[in-house]
Amino acid sequence: MHLVRYQSPEGRPVVGVRTDDTVAPVEGINSFAELLRLTLDELKATVLKVGEPVSVVGVKSLPPLDGRGEVWCAGVTYERSRGARMEESTEQSVYDKVYTADRPELFQKAPAWRVVVDGEPVGIRTDSGHDVPEPELAVVANSHGEIVGFTVCNDMSSRSIEGVNPLYVPQAKLFAGGCALAAGIRPVWEVENPKDLTIDVVIERAGNEVFAGTTSTAKLVRELQDLIDALFLPNDFPDGVILATGTGIVPELDFALAEGDVITITIADVGTLTNTVATGREPFAFLATDNLEDKR
Q1: Strand 135-141 and strand 241-244: pairing?
Q2: What is the pLDDT of residues 265-275, one digit of tens each?
Q3: pLDDT tens-digit series, residues 276-289
Q4: Of 46, 104, 144, 194, which sits 20 to 30 A from 129 (CA to CA)?
Q5: What is the structure's pLDDT at 64?
Q6: How far apart are CA 63 and CA 148, in angstroms?
Q7: Which long-range contacts (CB under 8 A, 24 or more apart) does 76-79 make?
Q8: What is the DSSP letter of 65?
Q9: Number of other CB atoms surrounding residue 58 within 10 Å
């Protein structure tokens, strides 16, 4: 089972449950914001009440977040991430310190309307020159701070911008097409052990594999609920929040993404996310336009 948002034939966003090759609307729920205002027990009971299923063929997927929902990220939560950040940075010690600190690194990645979904493009900045994907397990929390599910996140990143100065992290992380989520949320009750999931990424260029990597959430140094608790301590998330938990896969410094590259991230028991790289703001103008037309 995956909890999804999709577009009805009339162009209206619908909250549904996807099972195998069919999708069915959740009765009485009009948005993910409504769903994520429920307690975990309420949500579990609600998503069992679905309407008539239809084939997923031809159904347009929408990001699994809406309303005042936000995507946040945790940084330097894997040893590989610490090492990669230290390799690229002129200020190496800050990454070494945050890896072992009591307080995690947390930063806002995107509001719901800026998120791209599986099959849509992901972006790289025109003023960067060295960009990579960051495959991450994303934790979905309701407005009560309870973990209700998991999805796949591609936290696109500019290594060259962050490497110059850690204070440039917002510019290295927040840009058009910089945040992609898989189309579905796997409910927490269907994932036996989220701290033992294999994460794989494959990057293809002109049909040829140019990079592949794998890791496991077992290497994540932080506990998932601890990250959510730290996020909720100073903030309210009335329509829920998705927290990407950091990456354990970072290519070597001699690799950089190029326009047209196809990135596929797979997390066992959670889902798959595939996007093609585009450059600059223009390919993502549809995010603002679709939002204004109430199609996302």
Answers
A1: antiparallel
A2: 999 999 999 99
A3: 999 999 999 999 88
A4: 104
A5: 97
A6: 16
A7: 76/105, 76/246, 77/104, 77/220, 77/221, 77/222, 77/227, 77/245, 77/246, 78/215, 78/219, 78/220, 78/221, 78/246, 78/247, 78/248, 79/219, 79/221, 79/248
A8: -
A9: 7
Distance of alpha carbon 7 from alpha carbon 12, whole angstroms? 5
Collapsing DSSP to helix, strand or coil, 212 comes out as strand
229-249 average pLDDT score:
97
- Cα first-last separation, the chain: 22
Which sign does the torsion angle of CA 156, 161, 166, 167 carry?
Answer: negative
Cα R_g (the chain), whole angstroms: 18
For residues 109-136, give the mean pLDDT: 96
Between these two residues, 84 and 59, which has the higher pLDDT value? 59
Nearest to 138 by CA among 171, 110, 175, 176: 110
- The pLDDT tens digits for 72-97 are 999 989 876 665 665 655 565 677 67
User: For residues 267 and 271, what is the distance between their CA atoms, to the nearest angstrom?
Assistant: 6
Mean pLDDT of 234-263: 95
Query: What tokens does 79 get?
Result: 């040893």
Structure tokens that stand for 32 in this block: 């993910």
pTM score, two decimals? 0.94
User: In 104-140, which positions are buried (b, 16+ CB within 10 angstroms) versus exposed (e)?
Assistant: bbbeebbebbbbbbbebbbbbbeebebbbbbbbbbbb
Sign of the CA dihedral 270, 273, 215, 100?
negative
User: What is the CB neighbour count within 10 angstroms for residue 61?
Assistant: 19
Which of 213, 193, 236 lies closest to 136, judged by CA? 213
**Torsion region of 160: left, alpha or beta (phi above 0 gives left; psi -120 to 50 gives alpha):** alpha
Q: Residue 130: left if φ>0, alpha if ψ -120 to 50, beta else—which one?
A: beta
